[in-house]
Amino acid sequence: MMEKQQWISAESKSFFQSFLRSYLAGTCFNPSGYSSVGVAFAMYPALEYIYKDPQKTKQACSRYAGYFNTHPFWVPCAMGLFISLEQAIARGGMQANALEKNIKTICHTLSAIGDSLFSGSLLVLWALSTLCFFCADYTYRALFFSLFCLFGIQLFRIITFWAGLRYGLSFLITLKNVKLINWSRPIKMINALLLVSFLALAWPDKIPRLEWFLMLVFMAGGAYILFAKKIRREYVLIGCMLALLLFLQLSHWLTEKVMIYGFFE
Predict the structure, then answer these.
(1) Which residues are within 8 A (CB) of 73 and not within 5 positions of it... i.e. 6 or more apart?
(2) pTM above the 0.70 mark?
(3) Distance CA 32, CA 252 (A)
(4) Which residues of 122-140 are buried (b: 16+ CB within 10 A; e: fewer)?
(5) How far apart are CA 115 and CA 72, in angstroms?
(6) 182-194: per-residue pLDDT in tens?
(7) Which SS3 state, helix, strand or coil, does residue 111 take?
């Protein structure tokens, strides 16, 4: 009896399994190796296919079990890059020591792009846009927009995994030429406009023009000072919270004094 022809190769199957496991990269997150345990688990099917020998597979997994830290959206890309390099090692075209020295560099490079482009820009754009849709009573548009963004993230993970696997380290040169990290600046400008739009839509009463104008001038001036003087935002946030608490306490104290002295009933 003839065996059925497989519609997917063993190589593609193992790489696809590793991609699916990349969603579990945050498993067993720890302060020492960060995502190392989850990534080693995700890399295992691909490494098992590449090396065949259990001992060599174990040695390859140990390269990722020590340290691995990058932005979650870039984990598939990093894995694709490392699988491509592992194939080069298995063919004898690259030394394992060279890969071990570059793991942190590759992870940190992708992490810097991810923190700026996604965490600081696109995810904020997603959240503010959804809030604006809800405040404008466009519930279904908010739902469709969120689904569109969620689908876009999955497509990004698939494409970058394939690109890292297909082109290897040359894909990093492509990312450098595209200058993704610079895309965050115009996106943040859009986010500023979305924030103003959200406040305008969510404001309970008619917008007081003078107060709003003064508030926008104050926010823009404060943002410029933070940028020019390189002041940490955390310090400013803590200072504002302390100032607000002081204002509330002072207001309460003055109200009690005025009531004691009978200035109003």
Answers:
(1) 114, 118, 153, 156, 157
(2) yes
(3) 48
(4) bebbbebbbbbbbbeeeee
(5) 10
(6) 888 899 889 988 9
(7) helix
